Amino acid sequence: MEPIDRVRVRARDGDTDVEREDVLAVEEPLEIRIRRDGASGVSSFVTTMRTPGSDEELAAGLLFAEGVLDSREDLLGLARPADPRIDPELKANVLIAELAARAFERAGSLQRGTVMGSACGVCGKTTIENVIPTDRPPLSSPLRVAPELLYGLPARLRERQSLFARTGGLHAAGLFSPGGELLEIREDIGRHNATDKLVGAYLLRGGLPLSETILMVSGRAGFEIVQKAFAAGIPIVASVSAPSSLAAALAETAGMTLVGFLRDRRFNVYANPERIARDGREAT
Asked: Measuring CA to CA, which residue among 230, 40, 22, 77 is closest to residue 139?
């Protein structure tokens, strides 16, 4: 399924009125179903609105962020429905996650009761206790970066946003090394989906935790972004826009450094500023 769609629009530019083709980001539902190891039956866990592409990473990242998966070993497989009678378009919007018994049991207590929109992160969780981890210590990564490194992240992220350049309608999440190298980028119509895809990619490779990395997001840093980064062990989260008050509170409690309004060679630090060195000599 293509992540973009072409439509005809009537465009107005000053006194000129023309009909032309435009490109839009696709938004489609993805239903994530779960199956216990060795069982034949499946049950629906959640349906999320997303931009097609990297669906396996999205499912893995979402199940990890929700607390269903503790590690790569909890996820035994991801597959489309095998029934030949199912419409191909429906198959493209369904993924079945085969889970270890312990993960399947956790999923039962965490199951969502709603469809997640593309702007929805934690909405639909059964209880707030399932959202805020209470049994994990704050992150203690020694990572320190210089302001000059942070200044360069938005431009490097934008340079790699290929779908945004075509549609103007997608968010991006990028993972950077301590030296400012862009390691991975994922795009989606939802900020939280882009982050899930990114974290899911590393989960599937067995690459978590990400304790020596920086997460950069193209929109605002809401609570759900910080929560997902905390689950993945990412110590620094930066965004080009504002964080929410709950995001700042979680970052402070979780031992994470939260940077907002990172643009035009300036930024604000909303939590744990000690990871931002005053100059390059103090950086890791």
From this structure: 230
Q: β-strands 257-263, 266-271: how paired?
A: antiparallel
Q: Is the pLDDT reported for residue 206 higher than 80?
A: yes
| Nearest residue to 8 (alpha-carbon basis) of 18, 29, 22 | 22
Q: Which domains does the chain have, with CATH numbers?
A: 28-130 (3.10.20.10), 147-282 (3.40.140.10)
Confidence of residue 120 (pLDDT cuts 50, 70, 90): low
Say what the pTM is. Answer: 0.87
List the catalytic residues: 120
- What is the rounded distance in angstroms from the CA atom of residue 104 to the CA atom of residue 110? 10
Residue 281: the pLDDT is 62
- CB-based contacts of 78: which residues, under 8 Å, 6+ apart? 56, 59, 60, 95, 96, 97, 98
